[in-house]
Specification:
By secondary structure, this protein is α/β, with parallel strands linked by helices. It folds into 2 domains: 7-75 and 218-255, 2-Layer Sandwich (Nucleotidyltransferase, domain 5), CATH 3.30.420.40; 80-213, Rossmann fold. It contains 8 helices and 12 strands. It has helices at 39-53, 70-76, 94-97, 141-154, 171-183, 192-195, 201-231, 250-255, and strands at residues 7-12, 16-23, 26-33, 63-68, 83-88, 122-125, 128-129, 135-137, 158-162, 188-191, 238-241, 247-249. The strands form 3 sheets. The protein has a 6-stranded mixed beta sheet with strand order 3-2-1-4-11-12. The chain has a 4-stranded parallel beta sheet with strand order 6-5-9-10, sandwiched between helices. Strand 1 and strand 2 (16-23) form a beta hairpin. The chain is elongated, with a radius of gyration of 22 Å. The chain starts with 6 loop residues before the first strand and ends with a helix.
Length: 258
């Protein structure tokens, strides 16, 4: 006998939210307007409506699959959180200088996209790690503590930390987060050694900045979705579609929405 898996899938777009359920091998679908102020509302209402037509509830599902362009849209439309960047002294403008990669290689008048973090919210600290992970200049904890005051004054919601060669030795980034999170408990932190632990300074920094920029939005949304689905009786795992075509957990997606 073939075992049937009861599944629900929801995809949030900028205009519509698409819902598909598969119960006992039979599929049903619906399309409803996306509720922008609370995207989880359309997801829950849409799935619940389809389940009720089958006389079922959320507790009858074996898996809940979810896809969304909320994070992508937030970056394109510049609706992310107020974000600050902390990097190694001398590398404040890495994300603005970028690299030679551009869509028109020979256009000397090309206009680059505005960085997600403006120069006024980019901060530096004296420290240095070599490419082999050895420490050339120890991190000064006092400098990081002093930085907390400036960050608090700016009322930032999220902070990206990307220090030179942190992929080889993350200890300074971890320490920066430890010091600042104790003084800024309501702020989200993203460190490059966890978000994108790879060589090439611009790519690692820009990825970490983008992750910090959208993390408060996605963490808040996914947290509300997870909590409300649990209240509705869902015991099945919630898995999110990644841009690479795979699946990840809600908690992982909330930490690394990029």
């Amino acid at each position: 006998m073939v075992s049937r898996v009861n599944r629900a899938s929801a995809d949030i777009g900028g205009t519509f939210t698409d819902i598909v359920i598969e119960i006992g091998g039979v599929r049903a679908s619906t399309k409803i307007l996306t509720t922008h102020q609370a995207p989880e509302r359309a997801v829950i209402d849409g799935v619940q409506g389809l389940l009720e037509t089958q006389g079922l509830g959320f507790g009858d599902l074996d898996v809940f699959l979810h896809g969304t362009t909320l994070a992508t849209n937030a970056i394109i439309e510049r609706r992310g959180a107020k974000t600050a960047l902390i990097t190694t002294q001398g590398f404040r403008d890495t994300i603005e200088i970028g690299s030679e990669s551009r869509h028109d290689q020979y256009d000397i008048f090309i206009k680059k996209p505005r960085p997600l973090v403006g120069r006024g919210l980019r901060f530096t600290i004296p420290e240095r790690v070599a490419s082999d992970g050895s420490v050339l200049l120890e991190l000064d904890d006092a400098q990081v503590v002093a930085l907390a005051h400036s960050l608090k004054e700016q009322d930032v919601q999220s902070i990206a930390v990307s220090l030179i060669h942190a992929y080889a030795n993350p200890s300074h980034e971890v320490r920066v987060r430890e010091i600042l999170s104790a003084r800024l408990p309501d702020v989200y932190f993203c460190i490059s050694s966890e978000t994108c632990p790879e060589v090439r300074e611009y790519e690692r920094t820009s990825t970490t900045v983008a992750n910090a920029y959208i993390r408060p939005i996605m963490a808040g949304y996914l947290g509300r979705l997870k909590a409300e689905l649990a209240q509705k009786g869902l015991n099945a795992p919630i898995l999110l579609m990644t841009s690479g075509g795979g699946l990840t957990t809600v908690d992982q997606a909330a930490d690394y929405p990029i």
